[in-house]
Amino acid sequence: MSAIRLLVLGAVRQHGRAHGYQVRNDLEYWGAHEWSNAKPGSIYHALKQMAKQGLLVAHEIAPSTAGGPPRTEYTITEAGTEEFFGLLRESLAAYHQKPDVLSAGLGFMVDLGRAEVLGLLEERVKAIGAWREGITEYYAPEKGPAQFGHIGEIMNFWLDSSDSGAAWTRSLIERIRAGAYTFAGEGEPFVGVLAEGQDNPYATGERHPGDDR
Predict the structure, then answer these.
(1) CB atoms within 10 A of CB 168
(2) Which residue intervals of 36-111 are DSSP H helices?
(3) What pLDDT score does 62 carry?
(4) 82, 66 in Cβ contact below 8 A?
(5) Which of 18, 45, 148, 162 has its CA 20 to 30 A from that of 9?
């Protein structure tokens, strides 16, 4: 799955209605441009594509007083909401080699109920274990990397990564069980997006042609 779709749908959904630059600003606020493919061009392309696919609705608003082009604002559709939650659940339950998918899911996990998130994370631990078993069918860690020459270090890296991923997921499960964070249906959630005009201390400051559209 693509992290950019989850990130963009989630940002639009949190705002209710947002233009492309707001979405870009939010994702830079999260640092997503560093840990995912959420670059300006990818964000604006995703917005347009998902509008064509019926996941978002594009609303043209009046041109700026400076005579610029009409700015487009987006709202999420019922199909887009369904897509968002499907991607969110998959991001938390599956074991992906790319960390951007899980990172995107963590950013929106409180949009689900606490019990459901715990169940999805338990699925992730099981998925990691199954993946690890698949590797150890061919590679015996106790024999060390020499059994495959230096290529064995690749397998060592995979196994260590899966072990640390499972340990981290279990620790997150314990924190959530202990009452960490406010999940859907529990009260006022943490606001993770910037208000219109709010300063973003983490903005890259790089201009893109899509910023004014």
Answers:
(1) 11
(2) 40-52, 78-93, 99-108
(3) 61
(4) no
(5) 162
Q: How far is residue 14 CA from its own chain's centroid?
A: 13
Residue 116 phi/psi, 5-degree rounding, is: -65, -40
> Which amino acid appears at position 145 of this protein?
P
43-57 in b/e form (b: 16+ CB < 10 A) is bbebbbebbeeebbe
Query: Do 174 and 102 meet the contact criterion of CB atoms below 8 Å apart?
Result: no
Distances 43 to 12, 50, 170, 208 between C-alpha atoms, Å: 11, 11, 32, 11
Tokens 């897509």 sit on residue: 83
Contacts with 146 (C-beta within 8 Å, 6 or more apart), sequence order: 152
What pLDDT, on a 0 to 100 scale, did the predictor assign at position 182? Answer: 96
**Angle separating helix axes 78-93 and 114-136, nearest 10 degrees:** 50
| Per-residue pLDDT tens over the stretch 82-91 | 999 999 999 9
DSSP state of 39: -
**C-alpha–C-alpha distance, residues 36 and 78, integer Å:** 26
Are 76 and 56 contacting, i.e. CB atoms less than 8 angstroms apart? yes
**Residue ranges of the chain with per-residue pLDDT less than 50:** 202
Tokens at 157, concatenated: 């890296």
- C-alpha dist (Å) from residue 211 to 22, 68, 170, 177: 9, 11, 40, 41
